[in-house]
């Protein structure tokens, strides 16, 4: 790489880091500053004392602990469902005896081109007719399958050595045993990547949880933060404290799993 390209890359990375990092640092610094010092400007990034009063105010104004628990339940359920359906669908496409696996695969891919807003009303009416409105199940049920996860898992499975699959089949290894003993352990980076992406999407969901939930006790934390902002329009510190509450779990999750992300997204990229 030439020096000019190297400098351009460094400038790009610095700008990208600032775009991603400044809002996070602003929320954290604004949340821990004393009340009168929070102005809603970038000056909030400068240290001027330490206080937890905004966190106490946010917890008093909204049931954030309950909503964090709701988000955790929704995230775990939706992530597990998407990983299981993605793995099984990809296994059937690669190792199954389907007549037209590529045609089925592209049918899955077509669903990625349909905007989520176009099926919003249909999903809402379905949830209403099932009597699940204002429940946690309503938040994750329509998102138990993700075509992009099938794409990633299929690419990873296609790079799996065929010789191992053939040897396992000759030794009498069934599909379930082969999946659990050979396939998933050797494609672990992709499985972790799919899990991380599903968890982040589930945790950050806003529009659908807002539509299918009504009471504060069944809402997720992302919706709860918005309500907090409405109630505390003149107290930006409480809003920033709520945002910090909701952001920290995903930051920790990404830090723990970031080493798998690159490997997971590139595994099978040559296929």
Automatic annotation (TrEMBL):
It is a multi-pass membrane protein. GO terms for biological process: transmembrane transport. Keywords: Cell membrane, Membrane, Transmembrane, Transmembrane helix, Transport. InterPro entries: MetI-like, MetI-like_sf. It is found in: Cell membrane. One of its GO terms (cellular component) is plasma membrane. The keyword Metal-binding does not apply. Pfam families: BPD_transp_1 (PF00528). Residues 68-257 form the ABC transmembrane type-1 domain. The chain crosses the membrane at residues 9-32, 73-96, 103-125, 131-152, 182-203, 236-256. Its main location: membrane. It comes from the Bacteria. Belongs to the binding-protein-dependent transport system permease family. PANTHER family: ABC TRANSPORTER PERMEASE PROTEIN MG189-RELATED-RELATED (PTHR43744), SN-GLYCEROL-3-PHOSPHATE TRANSPORT SYSTEM PERMEASE PROTEIN UGPE (PTHR43744:SF8). This is Carbohydrate ABC transporter permease. The lineage of its organism: Bacteria, Bacillati, Actinomycetota, Actinomycetes, Micrococcales.
């Amino acid at each position: 790489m030439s020096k000019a390209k190297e400098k351009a890359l460094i400038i790009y990375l610095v700008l990208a880091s600032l775009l991603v990092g400044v809002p996070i640092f602003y929320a954290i610094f604004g949340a821990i500053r004393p009340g009168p010092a929070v102005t809603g400007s970038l000056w909030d990034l400068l240290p001027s004392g330490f206080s937890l009063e905004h966190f106490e105010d946010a917890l008093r104004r909204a049931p954030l602990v309950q909503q964090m628990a709701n988000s955790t339940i929704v995230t775990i359920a939706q992530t597990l469902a998407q990983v299981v359906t993605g793995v099984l669908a990809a296994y059937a496409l690669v190792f199954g005896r389907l007549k037209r696996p590529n045609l089925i695969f592209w049918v899955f891919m077509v669903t990625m081109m349909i905007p989520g807003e176009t099926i919003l009303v249909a999903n809402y009416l379905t949830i209403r007719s099932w009597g699940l409105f204002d429940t946690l199940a309503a938040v994750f049920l329509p998102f138990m399958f993700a075509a992009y996860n099938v794409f990633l898992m299929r690419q990873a499975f296609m790079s799996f050595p065929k010789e191992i699959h053939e040897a396992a089949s000759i030794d009498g290894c069934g599909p379930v045993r082969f999946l659990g003993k050979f396939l998933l352990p050797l494609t672990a980076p992709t499985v972790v990547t799919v899990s991380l992406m599903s968890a982040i999407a589930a945790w950050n969901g806003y529009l659908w949880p807002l539509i299918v939930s009504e009471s504060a006790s069944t809402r997720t934390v992302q919706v709860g933060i918005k309500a907090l902002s409405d109630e505390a329009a003149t107290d930006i510190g409480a809003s920033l404290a709520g945002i910090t509450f909701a952001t920290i779990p995903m930051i920790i999750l990404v830090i723990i799993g970031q080493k798998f992300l690159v490997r997971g997204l590139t595994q099978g990229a040559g296929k």
